[in-house]
Amino acid sequence: MSTKSLQKTLEQKRAERAWTCVQEVLSQAQNLEDPESFKKKYNSLARKVPMLVLTNGLGQTLAFLKAKGKNDPANEHTVLFRHLSNWVVSQVAPSPTASNGDLLQWVLENDSVAYRRATTEALAFLTWLKRFAEAELPED
């Protein structure tokens, strides 16, 4: 009898969530006026965001995504902000209701140690998101 562990590693959970996010983009695009454009823009943004975090910091990058998205649920910036925010808050916040799940708000409310932890988690998640976006979504 096999004693194979069913426990998933954190890396597997990141990959699973990133895959779900990219599949959500494919599904959401079907309801938009120009689905190919949305998929290409999301792919381009998913490839660019890790470098933005490394260059400008997590807080600046989140503010950029929020400003460009203007809370439009059909905007790729808003969608990626939501994907990143939901994952990182679920991993670093002590309670699921912390900052209403808004990573930018959570970053503003916490200290530098928490900020570094959130940045590390965001970069790990974005690595998977970038890879799955490259694999599943068309490029510009």
Task: Outline the structure in words.
The chain has six helices and no strands. It is mainly alpha-helical.
Task: Give a quick set of tags describing it.
140 residues; mainly alpha; globular
Number of helical elements: 6
Strand content: under 5%
| Main β-sheet description | none
- What is the CA–CA distance across the termini? 50 Å
The assigned structural class equals mainly alpha
SSE topology string = HHHHHH
According to DSSP, the number of beta strands is 0
The poorly predicted ranges are: none
Q: How would you sum up the global shape?
A: globular
Mean pLDDT: 93
Q: What Rg do the Cα atoms give?
A: 15 Å
| Helix-residue proportion | over 70%
Q: Briefly, what is this?
A:
This protein is mainly alpha-helical and 140 residues long. The protein contains 6 helices and no strands.
Layout of SSEs?
Blueprint: H1 10-29, H2 35-56, H3 58-69, H4 76-92, H5 103-109, H6 112-136
Helix pairs in contact: 1-2, 1-6, 2-3, 2-4, 2-6, 3-4, 4-6
